[in-house]
Amino acid sequence: MQRPDWAPETIDIERPSVARMYDYYLGGSHNFAADRAAAQAMVAAVPEAPLMAQANRAFLRRAVHHLADAGIRQFLDIGSGIPTVGNVHEIAQRLDPQSRVVYVDVDPVAVAHSREILAGNERAVVVQEDLRRPEAILAHPDVRKLLDLSQPVAVMVVAVLHFVSDDDRPAELLGTLRDAMAPGSYLVLSQASDDGRSEDERAEAERVYRRTDNPLWVRSRAELTALFDGFELLDPGVVWVPEWRPDTPESAEDAERAVFMGGVGRLGG
Amino acid sequence: MTSHPGTFARAWAKAVSGTSYLPMTQAQLETLLHRLTGQLAGALLTEPFDLRAGHRVGAELVAAHIASAEGLGRTVEVIQLRLVRDLGLVAEDVEDRMARLLAAVATGYARALRDRTLDEQESIRRAAMRARTQAERALRASEARFRHQATHDPLTGLPNRTLFTERLTAALNEPGRGAERVGVCFLDLDRFKVVNDTLGHQVGDQLLVTVAERLCKAMGEHLVARLGGDEFVILVERSGGTDGMVEVAETALAAVRTPALVDGHELQISASIGIVERQVAGANPSDLMRAADSTLHWAKAAGGARWALYDAERNQRELARYALSAAIPAALERGEFYLDYQPLTSLRDGSLVGVEALVRWRHPELGVLRPDSFIGLAEETGLIVQLGGWVLAEACREAEAWSAGGAAAPFVSVNLAVRQVHRPGLVQEVRALLRQTGLPPERLQLEITESTMMSTAEEPVRALRVLADLGVRIAIDDFGTGYSNLAYLRDLPVTELKVAGEFVAGLRSPSVGRTDERILASLVSLAHALDLTVTAEGVETAGQAERLRAIGCDAAQGWHFGRPAPADRILARIR
Prior knowledge:
By secondary structure, chain A is an alpha/beta fold. Chain A has helices spanning about 20-25, 35-45, 50-70, 90-95, 110-120, 135-140, 140-145, 170-180, 200-210, 220-225; strands at about 75-80, 100-105, 125-130, 155-160, 185-190, 230-235, 240, 260-265.
């Protein structure tokens, strides 16, 4: 196999991985000592960290449900991480076994793990690529094989954009993806926001993530809303993730503690 | 008492939500817990008490991802506080049974969570291992790819200079191979530049690819590398001797010679090859390649489309010649050059009409060198311009002094190399010299060869005309052996023809002599008809001198009239 030019040359499990830290927040054990140490430091800085991961995961679940109900049968999940409980393909294929899912992640361990989970599933595949190389994602043979981009697709950019700096021009990255999507497609977006957070908390969180390969880039509601350029935002717009179409009214309480903001946009036409 | 399993399940769901991520809605969670509530109630009442029911509930919770320490804690708490009450359970030893039930749930839960944790740890470790293996494999592949790129020519895919040098070095350094022999064919296409220039680089590149393929096919196991441009090299790691190498070279030449169809053009090309074949012992790669390179140049110099075999003696001679030419500038600075003069004698009255300046090199190690040992190389390297300039200046300087004697002083005849004549600024140079030395222009004769005039450039002709107008004499040296184009005799401001010595040599033997004598006689009458004087070169005997005089030749030069000598010795004759 040819090593993509952005991939690390060696696998260093002594270095925390954001994918495995996220698994730890979700209560999983797909993580190593270095991941747990970093995640615990994050929890010390931002006690809601596990909650926000769970809230975000619940947002993903509700969004996939909604899109499946809306007729979407193709999902491109970029930044899928460790495929722990409540995967896109589990949700989507439970609703319709014909649903096709392509996971994309930059972390080789996460990709190897996903590959194991997906073994035998002909309609779900994982691709090692980087959100910062949307052309490469779109051109990847597995993506082209499994997804028909002339038909509507849901592109999930969930809990990953805060690892993309402004220098990497997130709006252009999303624009490239949008240009490849058929009318009637959806963009599901969520990321950490600093709205209502103290300077200290943000600085501390950023310090923790500097230990990983993926420093943190928090964004405001306005910035996130702007990233839906070209899409029609579904109600209720860009909100704290627990507020996005909650199962019960109570589950949206104290929503800002979730740190993550997100929304779903539809490509008109 | 009334039974409210729904109330209990809702309270339970509330207690555990948020303790870990649950991939289900609150309603689904309640449904699940409602079912488990039934099992708990059953376990609490069933006789005899069955631990396994509690274990199952604990395991089911973990399987449903209610799988954290907090999840267990809150579950224990809510069961202990509310199960009996909410469900209105009545049993004799309910407290005792509750304790055992909670223990069973906690045990089942902990067991399942432990198994799950171990499974997850195992799977992530396996993933890390696989990722590492894959990364290492990719790294090796990329290293191999990089190594291939670094050692191969991207155009033809042949090994490049780096790989060739590695293989040659390895072949020479392999232990125990000292007595064996190694061979190299250094191949270069003939006139490849013409293809590039006329048909474009794309066709040129395509041709190189074709040649590369053919060589590869023809050479079989021998390494064929492209060193760059149109240079290829064939390495024969185990040579059986020069005959074998010549065979390899001929095979290679034949492979190149077959016409190649490139982009609609049928290209007929040839190549030259320099062969070096020698014993492994004592060989080193750079010397070997240098030898192959010089040998290739011999093949080129001999007209191309051939091979040449390395000859150590020839190489030694060339190296010595090269060293000599390289030493010319320093020798000029140190004043190692001087001039001898050879008399040009009138055949009419025996008077000294002129002298030809001949350069000598008093080499600190090799002694006095005659021009034939260094002029040729000086011409090739271009150093002739510097050296010729010095000769011209020195001759003018010395000749000016000769008129002090009073008698009609001889002119000085100086050879000009082609490069000197073609160089802009010749007129200024001569003018300046005449002015600086005070030598009258008519006492300077410039000897040029026929080949000087073979180029169609107008500038040299114009320069010579200006010089002739100044009064400088222009002689054609070695007339009759080269181009002998009579047209330029019409156009050029020539004063004199110097007839090559080989015609004069023929005058010695009666049979050949007759033809030569007739040629000479015709030349003389032609020259006189054009108002030119004729000097015969290489006159060695009185007999030759006599016959030349009879023909009407104006002057002569040669051993019979005096060997080259320092100016004062020559001039002593006229004082």
